[in-house]
Fold these 2 entries.
Entry 1:
Amino acid sequence: MEKKSFIEKYARILVIVAVFCGGASGPLAAKITASALVIGLGRLTVALPFFAVPVLKNREQREAMMRLPKRTLLLCGLTGVFLFLHFFCWFTSVKYANVSAAAVLAAFHPLVVLAITVFVYKKKVPGKAIAAIVIALMAGAYMTCSDISAFTDGRAVGYILAFLSGVFMGIYFAIGKKAREGVEGSTYVFLVFLSCWICFLLAVIVTGTPVIGYPATDYLFIVLLAFVCQIGSHAVWNLCLGMVEPLYVSAWESMDPVVSTILAFVLIGQVPTVTEVVCCIIVVAALIMYSRYESEE
C-alpha cells in the first residue's frame, strides 16, 4: 500500500488551518492605504517566487509542466483570472464596509460551488449538507438586509463588492478542482498564482496605478498578506483541492467571517454589531453541521 504524503493524510485539517490564516486578509488589507491593485500585485510578487523556484528548478517538474495539455493550462490560467477578480473585489470591499460584514457576504461562495458541483460536474451532494450551507448563506442575507443604513452612507458599494468576491471565489474553487486533476500540486499552485500575478500587473499598467510612494507600513502589511494569507491560506487550499472536494474547502472557508471579525477588532478596532455577531455564530454552527453530514456521506 502506497504511503500517503503529509498533505494527503491531513488535507481536511490543513483546510481548516488555512481558514484561520485567510481570516487575516480583510483586517490587514483594511489597514493598507494603497489600492486593491497595488495590494494584490505586491502580495503575489512576494509569494510567487516561493512556488516558481522549486518548480522551475526541478527538471522533471519543469518538463512535466511543459507537457501539460493546452486545456489544462487554459483551466489553470482561467482559475488565476477568477482569483484575481476575487482579490480585487475583496481588497476594495474592506475599504468601504466593515470587515466582519464584508466577510459574511464573501462567504456566499459555497452556493456557487454547490451549483457547479451539482449541475456541471453532475455529482450528488447530501441533502442535509446542502441545507447546512443554505442556512449559513441565509444568515449573511439577513445581515445585509437588516442594515438599511448601508444604502445611505456608502457601505452598499462594499457589500456589493464583497458579495462579488464570494461569487468569484466560488468559481475559482470549482474550476480549480477540475484544473487540479492530473497536475502536480506545486506546479498547479505556481500556474494559478502566475496567472493571477499577470492579471494584476496588466491592470496596474493599463490603469497607470503607481506602486511606490506609499507608507512603509503598507509594504509591511503586504508582506504579511503574502506569507500568512497567500502562502498559508490560498496555497494550502489549492494543494488540498486534489484530496478533498471543492465544496468542503469552500464551505469551511465560510468560517472566515468569525476569524475576520475577531482580528478586525484586535487589529483595527472595528466593533461588530449584534447582528454581525449572531450571523457569525449561525455560520459556524451551520459549517459544523455541514462537516458532519459531508463526512457521513
Entry 2:
Amino acid sequence: MFTRRGKPVVVCNKCHKIVNIKPRYRTDGGIEYNYFTCKKCGETYVISATDEALRRNIERYKHLRQKGQITEKEQQELTGLLQANLERSRELKEKYQFKRQA
C-alpha cells in the first residue's frame, strides 16, 4: 500500500490498476465486514470481519489505549488484546467468506 495525494491506495491483484481505498461496511448476520472494491474490475478486498465479541474487545483495547498512564499489567493486556483481535479477525475472514451482492 502507498499513498497518492495523501490518500491510501493499492494496486489491484486482478487488473493491476491503482485502487483508491474507500472503505465500505456491510453486515451479514452478526458479521460486520469492512472492505473496498476495485472500480475497474470489481475485485473486492476485505479489510476486516468482526463479530459482536470482537467488537467488544476492540472497544476495550481503544479504552485502554486512551487512558493516560497505563500500568505494566495493562500494557500486557493491550498486547494480548491486540494479538487476540487480529487472530480472531483472520479466523472470521476465513470462516465467513465475503459474498458480493449484485
